[in-house]
Each structure stands twice: as C-alpha cells, then as structure tokens.
Amino acid sequence: MRALNRLLLAGLLASTSLAAIAEEDVTPAAEPEVTIRQEGDRTVQEYRINGFLYAIKVTPKTGKPYFLVRADGDNNFIRADHPDRLIPQWEIFRW
Q: More exposed terminus of the chain, fewer Cβ within 10 Å: N or C?
C-alpha cells in the first residue's frame, strides 16, 4: 500500500511539472504585420506573420475588395471567393 501511495505521488508531481513546462512554451499569437500600398487604381494590403506572406487584400477603385490567400507552400495564391482558380505568377515578357 505504501509503495502504491509513493507511486501515485510521484506520478502526480511529474504531471504537474510537465503541465507547468507546457504552459511556459505557449506563446501568444503574433499580430499580423500589414503593409499597405497603392498600385495604380487599387489598394493592396499584404498580411505577414514573422515575415511570411499569407494573405493579400486587393481593394480596386471600383468594385468589391477580394482576398488572395496562399494555395500551398509555394508562391501560388488563390482568390478566397473562388478557391478553384489559381492566380498565375509567371513572367511572360520583360523589357
């Protein structure tokens, strides 16, 4: 009986110390860094966390604003309202 009590006490102490360690490792979510710029007749807002670009909001002068979100790990973006369309990112001509 005494060995069982010691074993239960050791398990309890180990679990509370693990919970304290896990609680210290939790960091609050970082606020996104928003960069706003004008491109012709539209406003572009880039949303980044730790330098990682994850979303772009495009607000044209006329029309509804729309979001471009990351499709995969590469630099492919899709419109949030049309997820089945990929936005091409290649360059055809350069002067």
A: C
CA distance 95 to 85: 28
Tokens 């609680």 correspond to: 23
Q: Are strands 82-87 and 42-49 parallel, antiparallel or unpaired?
A: unpaired
The tokens for 54 are 């994850």
User: What would the pLDDT profile of 2-16 be if each residue is shown by its tens digit?
Assistant: 665 565 556 666 666
- CATH for 33-87, options being 1.10.238.10, 2.60.120.320, 3.40.50.1820, 2.20.130.30: 2.20.130.30
Q: Assess contact for 91 and 77: CB atoms under 8 A.
A: no
